[in-house]
Amino acid sequence: xxxxxxxxxxxxxxxxxxxxxxxxxxxxxxxxxxxxxxxxxxxxxxxxxxxxxxxxxxxxxxxxxxxxxxxxxxxxxxxxxxxxxxxxxxxxxxxxxxxxxxxxxxxxxxxxxxxxxxxxxxxxxxxxxxxxxxxxxxxxxxxxxxxxxxxxxxxxxxxxxxxxxxxxxxxxxxxxxxxxxxxxxxxxxxxxxxxxxxxxxxxxxxxxxxxxxxxxxxxxxxxxxxxxxxxx
Length: 232
Known about the structure:
The chain is 43% helix and 22% strand. By secondary structure, the protein is an alpha/beta fold. It has 9 helices and 13 strands. The chain starts with a strand and ends with a helix. The longest helix is centred in the middle third of the chain and has 18 residues, at 105-122. It is elongated and about 55 Å long. It has helices at 10-22, 33-42, 59-68, 84-92, 105-122, 152-163, 171-178, 189-203, 227-231; strands at 2-6, 26-30, 47-51, 53-54, 57-58, 75-79, 97-100, 126-129, 132-135, 140-143, 146-147, 209-213, 217-221. The chain folds into 2 domains: 2-121, Response regulator (Rossmann fold, 3-Layer(aba) Sandwich); 126-231, Arc Repressor Mutant, subunit A (Orthogonal Bundle).
């Protein structure tokens, strides 16, 4: 899950990135309105943490602008001036939650999880594929009702493929979703994750397999005979 932080307080932004990264999020940080706008318009984010006051403009104006153009990811607004009027303006402008600065790191993580969970619940938080179920709220994959152990990256890849409902998901999209800008995965990183995911699914007798679409990406194959697909 990818998170964007737009905040001109470098120390606070670095703290927020550290605690969210420790919880498994891929996090990008920008310190100006213009850089934040460019990030929103060029990258798919699951959640945005937005400061109300930025050196080159208002976070509130950026939020209103992006909501009008159809940006619908959850937004957590940050402000050192968390009075009632500011909170009302933020909520009316399209933010999903409001957090005063300074904040307790654990509360930031809890609020980010809460607003992303609300979105997942709207989109159904359990995906069923043959004998496999993906619970997006619990970050859990079960085969025949039993949880299987996947790494953070494996879970993220499986989640993206499961939500695509059999349609190929491009390598670029997967990489953009599971890595932040500060990370530099080599060409073989995604293939290694896919290989481990295939082995774990096969070992668990899952009736799904990861299929390679050359030049397109990957999808989940749910055909009865998965041996050929799993080897591709």
